[in-house]
Amino acid sequence: MYEALFAYIKRYSNVPLTSNEIEIIHKSWVPQKLKKRETLLHRGEICKQTAFIVKGAMRQYSVDDSGNEHTIQLAIENWWIVDRESYLMRTPSVYNIEAWEDTQLLILKRKELEDILEFPAIKEMFWHMDQNNYIASQKRLNDAISLTALNRYENLLKYYPDFVKRFPQHIIASYLGIKKETLSRIRSQLSQQ
Amino acid sequence: MYEALFAYIKRYSNVPLTSNEIEIIHKSWVPQKLKKRETLLHRGEICKQTAFIVKGAMRQYSVDDSGNEHTIQLAIENWWIVDRESYLMRTPSVYNIEAWEDTQLLILKRKELEDILEFPAIKEMFWHMDQNNYIASQKRLNDAISLTALNRYENLLKYYPDFVKRFPQHIIASYLGIKKETLSRIRSQLSQQ
DNA sequence: GTTCTTTAATGACATATGTCATCGTTTCAG
DNA sequence: CTGAAACGATGACATATGTCATTAAAGAAC
After folding, report:
1. Taking every annotated instance into account, which residue ranges of this chain make up the domain Cyclic nucleotide-binding (chains A, B) (predicted)?
2. Which of A16, B101, B119, B160 lies 20 to 30 A from B152 at CA?
3. Is the C-beta of residue A169 closer than 7 Å to nucleic acid chain C?
């Protein structure tokens, strides 16, 4: 269960962990299971945990005034899922986070964060996490404002084929910023080539 | 010149600076002036500096196959401008960065970064910078996939009125992900209410 | 297995945005 | 001051995407 988390920490920090730190990390991240469609966060709540996905698939989405869902993030094994703004600033979230498959998580509550950030390796890891997330969301933003819906879908297929396999089309569409009918037509267009 | 930088560092870290650190910071960030339309980074180059804007206005943009520009970031006084991915990973940038007004910068070269990251206050500050950038670009992404062009422009007017004042419409349009003609029509629509 | 729900495809039509061309105004270098 | 370039507004039309309705297939619950 914890191997994947330690592997992740190791990959993103060059500081080794002491055995005391390893023990405290075990206590700080606690396992939690979610069934498909169970939620980790409801809009309006403060996000109380940073979750590491050991197994399964999650998504983070907002709902607009017309009731349309907009998927801001998809995440599978070895990804983090959290509303970082809400978690860090303790402000109500505008997002929902839910499991799209039966999912095994390791949860770090906000309360434990301060202590564990004292560990250089953990601090290093979270810095890399924020850097990577910043770089990834900047790329996605550039795609969103500069590519056609077709190109965005082709990029997704190329770089994150698992997402396309594991989430239904209406969620993929809401991730790309288009309607499910449009995605369906893009796909039929691609299959005719 | 350096007051704004030190104020920024102070705001985003609760660790005080030693007088030795203050001296080294002075040496590490060097002043640079740019005239309007001079560039700090060309696509294809590796981004060699993180720049703090003391006075002026800059933009970061990509150019697609059809020659259309897409503005990924606008920045004015007290903002940072850098292609963080290129700067950290030393990979060629897909972006251009140019001055849109005569601009006064403080430049931190990649070479000096490693040393200066040893200072807790600086590390803290850069972490906050990445966190803030991540949160901001996630918000903007959510806007891009969930709001109409009109709403995106209204948000920009509300939260960053200086951008609208200091950059011409074709740049604002490329920041919003629309064409300048569309922005012009949105504006005339708003002014008739 | 049977039934209910979810997912996906598709046609007809509506709307938003892009494209291209034109024109007047503003800005700015010489 | 003057001419060129940049900027902004607008009309006519093209294209991409959204909306709504219908149908069929796949999957989940009982």
Report:
1. 32-118
2. B101
3. yes
Instruction: Give the ipTM.
Output: 0.90
Domain residue spans of chain A: 3-116
Q: How far is B65 from chain A (nearest CA, A)?
A: 10
What one-letter code names the amino acid at B190? L
CATH 3.90.550.10, domain B3-118, yes or no: no
Q: Beginning with the edge strand found earlier in the chain, give each strand of the sheet holding B58-63 in spatial order.
A: B39-41, B96-99, B58-63, B69-75
Task: Tokens 């560990």: give the residue.
Answer: A119
What are the C-alpha distances in Å from B109 to residues A130, A161, B23, B88? 21, 37, 16, 11
- Digit-by-digit pLDDT tens for chain B (193 residues) are 899 999 999 998 888 899 999 999 999 999 999 999 999 999 999 999 999 999 999 999 999 988 999 999 999 999 999 999 999 999 999 999 999 999 999 999 999 999 999 998 998 899 889 889 989 989 999 999 989 999 999 999 999 999 999 999 999 999 999 999 999 999 999 987 6
Nearest-angstrom CA–CA distance, B179 and B60:
17
Q: How close, in Å, is residue A80 to chain B by CA atoms?
A: 14
CB contact under 8 A, B84 and A135: yes
- Residue B55 in contact with residue B104, Cβ under 8 Å? yes
d(CA A111, CA A82): 15
